Amino acid sequence: MDRINIAIDGPAGAGKSTVAKLVARALGYIYIDTGAMYRAAAYKALINNLDLDDQEALTRMVQGSAITLAYDTEGNQQVFLDGQDVSVDIRTPEVTRSVSKVAAVRGVREEMVRLQQKLAETKGVVMDGRDVGTFILPKAEKKFYLTASIEERAGRRYLEMQSRGYEADLEEIKADIAQRDQMDREREFAPLVQAPDALLVDSSDMSIQQVVDKILEVSREGSE
Asked: What mean pLDDT value characterizes the chain?
C-alpha cells in the first residue's frame, strides 16, 4: 500500500481521536491529533489568565509557543508545550470548555495549520480535527467525516470524564457539546464542515472497531 494522508473530521465527541489513533497504528502511520494542539494553546491561555476574547493576545501567545507532538515506546501520542509534557493537563473540563473559543481565532489557526501541514509533508499521516479535509490537508488521498448523535457523543464524553476522575453531569455535557458544535460550524475562518469528497461515517450505532475497519477498508481501496 502506497503511503497516503488520511483526514478524519467531525464534531466534538464523535470518537475521532480514538479511531484515528487505531487506524494509524494498523497502518504503521503517524497519528496527529490537531485538537490536542489547540487544547495546549487553550491550556496556556488559561494558566496565564489571558482574556479569551483578546484575539491579538491569543495569536501572539501561540506564535511565541512551542507546541510539539512526540510518541512513547507504545506509540501513544504525547503533547509538549514549551518543553513540558501537558498530555494530561489539556484534558480537564475547563480546557474542554475553552478550546473552541481559542481555536476560532484566525491567527491561532493559521499558526497551527502551518505546523500541521509541515508534519504531514512526508505522507503516512492520519490527522483528525475539524477542518483537516477542507483546509489543512485539502489534497489528502482519503477523507472521512465522523459523526454521531449528540446523545451518543455526550454519553461517551460522560464515561470518559468519569474514568479520568472528574465529576460529570450528562445534561451539562450535552449542552456543552451543542454549544461547541455551534461555535465550530459558525466560526468565520475554516469552520467545521464535511468536505465534498469525504465519506460520511455515522458511528451512533457502530462500535469503535467497526468504524476503524470501515476506514481501513476504504483507505486501502486503490492504494495497494
From this structure: 93
